[in-house]
User: Fold this.
Amino acid sequence: TNVAVYYGQGANQPRLSHFCQESSVDIINIGFINVFPEAVGDWPGSNFGNQCDGNVYENTELLSGCHQIWEDIPVCKELGKTVMLSLGGETAYQTIASDEVAEWFADFLWYSFGPPGQNSSFPRPFQDNQVDGFDFDIEHDGGYGYATMIRRLRSHFADFPDETFYISGAPQCQLPDAQLSDAISNSEFDFIWVQWYNTAGCSAMNFVDGTGLFNFAQWSEVIKHSANPNAKLFVGLPASESAAVDGFYLTPAEVYPLVDIYMNLYPDLFGGIMLWEATASDNNVINGHDYAQHMKHILHK
Ligand SMILES: CNC(=O)NC(=N)Nc1ccccc1
Assistant:
């Protein structure tokens, strides 16, 4: 099973290649496309923290100089990592106005960040690199349009039958998730990494405290009745104390029993662990190993 990390918003974060050289990391969600188009023809915007050179495509908020990222994605691919482009995040205004805007947004993402050489009307912010899929980290204002985007993206995926592309999502743990429940029911996800932190009534800390409110079982039912019952369910966790709201960080020793129980209760569904986020994990060294390394060890049992 896999460890997925978010990359792009870490304080003083190192380059992407640093994380791709870590054997404990399998999937990297590069965040974020944090400005969504309001109308057909509008370009989205991006933010990758301290990466890129600050330049944007004229009259847009889309970063054009992400040289570290376009240089490092080949390293990641060479090392067998799955590289996803993540939409949303904390700051984004995340409303999709109509099905037309949803399909435009999906087309833009595909022609700009998917396989190169399809449509020269679109920019190539990561140059000829293609991402392995798109992650939906919709934190607010969502709810409408994401199923349409995902169906459109999957129709593009089908044009490249020899290649594999993924759709993932990061809902909050409270059910139903206001932002992504509609999309999960009506369009096919490959990975769902639930943010089992920052929300008191369902978090992983509830497992530690024995309240019975940790809701992995309920989420397993959501997946079973979703558009893709074969989606993998990941346990999302903060990678350090400071990476989440106070009180939601689990030590590796606290994670072990949770993962052991649910990995064995749901062997086909259980996909692994998602961490928010990569740099916090790097900086959280316990007994000589960083947090992601501890998670990878727990997954191997
Ligand atoms: C998958 N996305 C996130 O995990 N976002 C996230 N953790 N945002 C955040 C919320 C509160 C404090 C710090 C970060």
